[in-house]
Known about the structure:
Number of helices: 3
Strand order of the largest sheet: 1-2
Strand content: 5-15%
Radius of gyration: 17 Å
Oligomer: single chain
Largest sheet: 2 strands, antiparallel
Shape: elongated
Amino acid sequence: MRRRVVFPFPAIVGMEKAKLALMAVAVNPTIGGVLLRGDKGTGKTTLVRSFADVLPEIEVVADCPFQCHPRDPQLMCDSCYARYERGEELPVARRRMRVVDLPLSITVDSSWVPGH
């Protein structure tokens, strides 16, 4: 396993608009995401990785591959929603929030899977 060194988010100087955008999407996920662009070597990846380390843990449905929200039906996949509707108690787990790098060509209906 590779060790990944992460620079602390509060120690990053500059890129104020990018930092504000990341914090805004963390507070309000309905924004849908953040697109950071800039020249190679400007610190975009360093910024995002450092931000991921300050995000809180979240509760998810423990046995759901989509990590659905365990109590909000609007944030559930069809399978979790059906279980919720039947009155099943969904198993809850706490997990670190994930930050996913997506290729620029990604679309909402795309079948891209991280790491593949």
